[in-house]
From TrEMBL:
This is Transmembrane 6 superfamily member 2. It is found in: Endomembrane system. InterPro entries: EXPERA (IPR033118), TM6SF1-like (IPR047195), TM_Tm6sf1/2 (IPR059044). The chain crosses the membrane at residues 32-52, 64-83, 107-130, 142-162, 168-187, 219-240, 269-288. The lineage of its organism: Eukaryota, Metazoa, Chordata, Craniata, Vertebrata.
Amino acid sequence: MQLPAVPGVLAPSLLAIPVAFGINGATTLADSPLVLMLTVVLVLAGLFSIILLTSGVSHFQDPLFCVFVVFSFTSVVDLIISLEEDGYISGFMEVYVREGEPHLRTAHGIMICYWDGIIHYGLYLAMIAAIGQRKSYRNLGLFWLGSLLMSIVVFLLGNLIGKYSSDLSPAFLLNLPYILIPIWAGVRLFQQPKVLPCLSPEKVAEEQRKCLYQRPQDMGLILVLLLTAAFTFFRGMVVLDCPADSCFEYIYQHEPYLRDPVAYPKVQMLIYMFYVLPFFCLCIYGLVLPGCSWLPDWSLVFAGAVAQAQFSHLGSSLHARTPFPYQTPEDVWWSFLFTNVFYALGPQLLALRCLRCPAFFLPATPASLHATKKHQ
């Protein structure tokens, strides 16, 4: 016997079944961490099975493929956490964040989850697609490497020394693979062959013979790097409680977030001062003298690191989850945004210059050395 169709009544009722099931399922996951962990394992197993059935075992010959697949799944989880903490969704990861990693509820934790769920996720998809098409993903991988390492190092150190250090739980150990795996992945990425442009030794020699005043783009980059290095040193002195009046005025009137007891901004500025600042000096050296073949690769690593760090720092300074005394004052928003965006832009321009015109950084060949001597 066929039931009569009732327009506008039966269809919504049928659609309500999976919707209600999904809501109840999400509530069950949120209330039971064990069920949540089992669901994650099953989803990952199903994901690998689908990949294995559709593409065979050829993709798995590159071990980084498995890393990118697993990390892409965690990126989606991080995006869910950030959206839930900002109130856009609810009932998915509340128990895990509250009981396992409460530091993800800080402004900095939310920002790194957004970055991981959007930027890192896009990089994972691009690198997975490149592996499937047997194309090189070395440059994307180096940018990802710097971004992920900066994110996890600042996050872990801030958790250990900040005001949430007493709230650490065994779930904190889940972050260890995010240090060990990227280090191993970085070694493999650096071992991959570079995609070198087809340039004759004469062309390389001609480019490397140019003096600095004949390369206005490099002169501009050096100026940008000098300003960025000076700003890096200044903010490092600010978080080290330099007694100078300019440092006191800056930390209270321009970037009070640097005083936040969560310690993430302080750790970030110290990493800038002790690691990024020396690299800026090496970059200036590499732009002056030809043949610094290490610069294109490391410029990508530091471009990813600074991009991630500045996004998290900017977002945390302005986020409502940051206590009001440590938020950036409204009257200095534009100067704050300009200086921090300009700071993030320098390493990106350097990496772009190294990728588009790499002849200056290629190691000198015997033919190019002979051409240089002949010119002299």
